[in-house]
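Sorry, can you check?
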Amino acid sequence: MTSAEIGRAAEDAALEHLERGGLRLIERNFRTRTGEIDLIMSDGNTLAFVEVRYRRNTRFGKGLESVTAAKTQRIARTAAAWLQRTRQSDRNCRFDIVSISGKLGSFEVDWIRNAFNV
């Protein structure tokens, strides 16, 4: 299995986990020239912009620890572009991270709500 296929499987696992948690998918893999947002979800009246991070093992840290300040700024700029494009800039928003670790078929999922503020 290629790394792209494993990444897609991890993103699928994250989506399934979030949907079980009551969130509803709005858009997947939204891209602009400033960056990408893996999942845009609705959690009641709140929009959740979700970054999915996969690590085969946690020897060098979990996915959450791999989200740098530069990455959070790119996510925030991309979220602002999405809000402007969809004319939803008045919505409540938050930034979540779903950290996936382990092997395909036995993923461990950590969902961090409100993982960072910008």
